[in-house]
Amino acid sequence: MTLTSTTLQTEWPGIYYDGVSASPHRVTIQVRPSGLQIIAQSGSQLSWQYQDVRQTQGKYSGEEVRFERGSGICEVLTVSDTAILDCLHTVAPDLVSHFHNPARRRWRLLITCLAGLTSIPLLWAAFTWGIPWLSGPVTTLIPIAWEKELGQFMASKLAPPETQCTNPQVVDSLETIVTTLSLSVESNPYSFHIHVVDSPTVNALAAPGGQILVFRGLLEHTETAEEMAGVLAHEMQHILHRHGMRLLVQNFSMGFVIGALSGDVSGIMTFGLQATHVLQTLSYTRDIEEQADQAGLQLLLRSGINPEGMLDFFRTINEKPNEKKKPSQHIAPYLHTHPSAEARIQRLQNLIPQKINPTSSLLPNTNWIQIRKLCGSSRKRST
Q: Within its chain, how far is the Cα of 378 from the centroid?
């Protein structure tokens, strides 16, 4: 194909991960008719043929574009500007048909809006019956600011001040872990907020808009800061991929969806309590949980945190129920809302590279065994 336009942008800044180390490399990506040319700052170059590349992220608004090549812990290329997809379909339309085409998305969204205006009853019926495929495109249209407001309201109901553990050592430690992870997140529209709930329940929840709830029971079941980092990386991915909002869109009335799309803050009070109940009682699909696991593992690697901590926590959770041949009442919520620990361990073990560059110790000057007990100790002293 010969291009006659001289205005088409064909070079894009991106981040390259070689699949061996967790170090990011800033590169320039050239879109060519036969493939992607990756040029490092040192001048070295790589050529990726389109047939060898798959797109794993960038279908939804606000997501960075992610390309992968190889299997297991593979080579990864991320681009924050989704306009590269338009360029690809212009330069090599016959070779990139397996990549997402934003033009089709824009057309699909236009058709959706027109259908909504001309056939409200049909759209209402679709949401009433919970058609999963519709939740993704609709969620991308919900303003981030509205999502943040909803998340703050839900967090205030799930973790009111009187139920929180506010021990500064605990809160500072968890916030430090989240900050370390956040530094490796590209194009992050959220500010993450940690709430430690003083409850023996072994669970963690990701509310929309950046709100993360960690229950004391889960904190006490972690043996190291790296184990907690694995949990937090997983929950952060639920937020970054807007899984919570998609779950709410699938299970709510048309009134909620219209209020969310319009950014009507007054509707948050109307639907906030119901949204809180949905988040507590419903589970994500297996595909969504696997996406949060895999993306969380990649985030740990990029942050220089030993990913074995994530697996160690799953092993701990998997062993505890076996002591009495059934889950305890406190561990049961985590097992109910997350996939089988054994399956997760096996799947993630296959994704960890055999050679990992030396990682720095997370919270090296902190005694984690003491930190994890501080909430319970504070509660006992006050009673």
A: 32
d(CA 229, CA 366) in angstroms, rounded, equals 14
Q: Which residues pair with 26 in a beta bridge?
A: 15
Q: Where does 55-129 have alpha helices with state H? A: 83-91, 102-118, 120-128
Q: How many CB atoms lie within 10 A of CB 358?
A: 7
Domains assigned to the chain = 11-104 (2.30.29.30), 134-382 (no CATH)
Distance CA 280, CA 284 (A): 11
Output the pLDDT for position 283.
79
Confidence of residue 314 (pLDDT cuts 50, 70, 90): confident
Token pair recorded at residue 323: 């002591």
What gap in Å lies between CA 224 and CA 312, rounded to an integer? 9
Q: What is the largest CA-CA distance in the chain?
A: 77
Residues 6+ apart with CB under 8 A from 176: 363
The single residue listed with the structure tokens 């297996």 is 286
pLDDT-derived band at 155 (thresholds 50, 70, 90) equals very high
Whether the pLDDT of residue 274 is over 90: the answer is: no
DSSP result, 6-74: S----EEEEEEE-SSSS--EEEEEEE-SSEEEEEETTS-EEEEEGGG-EEEE-SSTTPPEEEEESSSS-
The answer to whether the beta carbons of residues 35 and 50 sit under 8 Å apart is: yes
